Sequence to fold (413 residues):
Amino acid sequence: MFETLFSAMITILPDYLFRRYVQGKRIGHEITLYSVWYELRFGIVTCLMLTITLITLIFYYHPTATSAVSTFRTIPILPEASGRVEEIFVPNELETEIKAGAPIFKLDSSRQEADVVTAKQQVEEIKGEIALAEGELAVASAQVDQAVASLKQAQDELDTRQELFERNANVVSERDLEKLQNTVDSRTGALEAAKANKDLAETKINVALPAKLSSAEAKLEEAEVELGKMTVYAGVDGMVTQFVLRPGEIVNPLMRPAGILIPHDSVQERIVAGFGQVEAQVIKRGMVAEAFCPAVPFTIIPLVVADVQSEIAAGQVSTGSQLVDATKASETSTVTAILEPLYEGGLDKLPPGASCEVNAYTSNHDRLLEDKDLTTAQYVFLHVVDTVGLVHAIILRSQAIQYPIRTLVLSGH
Fold:
């Protein structure tokens, strides 16, 4: 409507003034309802063409996104294992403030507690085996000392008899020497056996039993970790919302979440908007934009385009059991852009998740100042593009003023 009125002011109106004051034609006489087209045909055709041109320029170079939302991140509250709820630590409220590390709910942990007791008992058993092995080592050490003394005694006796035999063969017989030599050999073997028994005891104490103890302690830690998983804690500071879980319910990490946690840092100062594909070449990072959000009536929020996604979601291909059919891609898929407030605190009053309507504005100001190679036609065209953005800004403000009235008064609800 605004574009039509503007076009009529510079096309139909001058045409009528020419017909009226130059050609002397009057409304109701020469210019009647039936002769309007013939008399004002040049102005009407020019008005229609100019109106279409203006609408195209405005909506192409200053695109609108009707699907825009103030996004925020949520974290599902899930246990790492399935189980029945035993205790709830969060009050039954719509929203509850919670700190990182605070417990949220606890599952039935009877089996995990039994596993912890069993693992502790195994650790104590192995410690008892270590104490027993240390006693065996003491016995083996004593046996080694005893075998050393017995061997020394037999060796001394053999040496004495050998010396007597060498002095006088009639005093000691060869048979006695052989007996003593056998005794020495026997006690040498007993000493080696005692040493081997001592080494075995040391190996048990230093290698085998410590390894078993470490394994048992690892199993104990594993059992304690599994027991700890039965209590679900908040990983970050945030807000637990719509938490309706109660004792006795079954929670499954794949199918049955317990609730939603909204982190404090997830309420990001940004708006995600979807612009039409025809404007994909126009939307650029750094463009100035404005948003009107019903949650903040009678308010226009200045924004800036922070980032533009280069891909369009409709064309994504993922591994599946069906072949890709290009006809299933939606033609209405949009170009996603991220917008941030132009001024600090610009989105403070906007509730997370609020829907908005966004206008982005093309600006050629820098190009007009710096580009010396512009032709006159280009210079005028760029000026026109920047100027018609005012129309879109007026339209957005008109919608912001009309929306509360149209919704609350004229909707009939």
Observations:
- The radius of gyration is 47 Å.
- The mean pLDDT is 82.
- The chain is about 50% helix and 15% strand.
- The longest strand covers residues 300-308.
